[in-house]
Design goal:
44% of the residues lie in helices and 16% in strands. By secondary structure, the chain is α/β, with parallel strands linked by helices. Helix 8 packs across helix 11. The chain has two domains: 194 residues, Rossmann fold, CATH 3.40.50; 95 residues, UDP-galactose 4-epimerase, domain 1 (Alpha-Beta Complex), CATH 3.90.25. The chain starts with a strand and ends in an 8-residue tail after the last helix. The longest helix is centred in the first third of the chain and has 21 residues. The radius of gyration is 19 Å and the shape is globular. It binds nicotinamide-adenine-dinucleotide (NAD). Nicotinamide-adenine-dinucleotide (NAD) binds next to helix 1, strand 5 and strand 7.
Length: 320
């Protein structure tokens, strides 16, 4: 199958591209960033801006994909610094992807939504169908993107589906998300021996290890349409406090110095997100089941991060 991945130059794309290739797919990328060194051979890399409609239409026309994984976006913390640009990239960009999919007969658009669609005050566990009142521009654009995709599905018959990811953790680059403190505890903790988290130790949000997140994308994108009762699904794996993550790192990285200094802006975003998600619809409709809890993830990720640090040295900008 031919798959076009928008925004594949980031945290998810780094792990998604090799996985798609290993499954025998023909893969093309559309991203603002130049082709990175880690991009596997065999992937066609088109450089362009998702917020420029003509460029998106040209890319989709020339790649002629069967399926699009639409990842390109500006994430939560980064988005608050440039809210107008975030609207343009995240929402107009999504509209151009959907419109190009309609025009050039793409079978499916897969959307990567987020727990940032939720606002404060929701009683955990938080299900799929609750009032959505996000407090960030990122969350606003993701709610609107979900609705726009559902419009394209009901009016134009496009197969639109996706997940609301929790904060994702992998041995990769954090992308400016408010959940990045968890990954930095591992990466900076192991590379520099210390990290000061920008949240309180009690902060609790849902997280997921990248292998589970990628499997969720593949499994939902391949699920029979008849089995699905909705387009967008909550998916969950674990909801540790920041303190519990720090303890998991300390158990595996002796002597690491992890401290907390809450940054009011990012703390407010974290506090607006649900502590625990209800993902029972995903578990019922397409058999979603996470594999990694905090302990299993920590056991798996520590040697991987150590390997990356050793192979890439201490250089500024090392790909971890
Ligand atoms: N990483 C997470 O924890 C997380 C959680 C929930 C949802 N998501 C969603 O998953 C998707 C991918 O997330 P990620 O963590 O890989 O993000 P990232 O920030 O690491 O990567 C985003 C990619 O989009 C590209 N991009 C940004 N602006 C663009 C533009 N104007 N035109 C073309 N490309 C552009 C960037 O170059 C980058 O390669 C996003 O839609 C995000 O909202 C991520």
């Amino acid at each position: 199958m031919k798959i076009l991945v928008t925004g594949a130059g980031g945290q998810i794309g780094t792990d998604l591209l090799p996985m798609l290739l290993s499954r025998g797919h023909d893969v093309a990328v559309y991203d603002l960033a130049p082709r990175p060194d880690w991009c596997p051979a065999g992937v066609e890399w088109m450089r362009g801006d998702i917020s420029v409609s003509a460029e998106v239409f040209d890319a989709v026309k020339s790649a002629a994909p069967d399926r699009i994984f639409h990842l390109a976006a500006i994430l939560s913390a980064a988005g608050e610094a440039v809210p107008h640009r975030t609207w343009h990239v995240n929402l107009d960009g999504t509209r151009y992807v959907l419109e190009a999919a309609r025009l050039f007969e793409v079978q499916q658009v897969f959307y990567t939504s987020t727990i940032a669609v939720f606002g404060p005050g929701l009683e955990p566990p938080v299900g799929d169908d609750v009032p959505l009142h996000p407090t960030t521009m990122y969350g606003v654009t993701k709610v609107a993107g979900e609705l726009l995709g559902e419009y394209y599905e009901s009016v134009f018959g496009l197969d639109f589906r996706g997940v609301r990811f929790p904060g994702l953790i992998n041995a990769g680059i954090p992308g400016g998300g408010t959940s990045d403190y968890a990954l930095y505890m591992f990466v900076d903790g192991m590379r520099d021996g210390a990290y000061e988290a920008f949240c309180t130790p009690e902060s609790r949000i849902p997280f997921m290890y990248m292998p589970d997140a990628l499997r969720a994308m593949i499994e939902l994108s391949e699920a029979p349409k008849e089995a699905l009762t909705r387009s967008i699904y909550n998916i969950a794996a674990m909801s540790p406090t920041a303190q519990e993550i720090a303890d998991a790192v300390r158990e595996r990285v002796p002597g690491v110095n992890l401290t907390f200094k809450s940054d009011p802006k990012r703390q407010a975003i974290l506090d607006s997100w649900p502590a625990v998600l209800d993902d029972s619809n995903a578990r019922r409709d397409w058999g979603w089941k996470h594999e990694f809890d905090l302990a299993a993830m920590s056991d798996d990720i520590v040697p991987k991060i150590r390997e990356l640090i050793e192979s890439q040295g201490q250089a500024e900008g090392a790909h971890v």
